[in-house]
Amino acid sequence: MTDLNHYIPRCKTCGVLNPPTHIENAIQACNIHRFNHPNHKTMWVPIKSARNNKEQSK
Ligand SMILES: [Zn+2]
Question: Given this model, what pLDDT does residue 11 score?
Answer without folding.
Answer: 98
